[in-house]
Amino acid sequence: MDMGKDSAKSYAVIGAIMLTLCCIALIFFSELPGVKLSVGSFAFASLVICGVGIYNLKNINIYEDEEKNKEKEREAAMALSLLPGLGHKYLTGKLKIIHTIVFTISLILIIAGILIISEIINIEEGVGWILLVYGLVIFFFSWSWSALEVNDICNNMNLQNINGIFSMSWNKTESGLSILFIVTFIILAGMSIAWGYFYPQYFYAAAIATLASALLLVWLIINKIRKNK
Question: Whole-model pTM above 0.85?
Answer without folding.
Answer: no
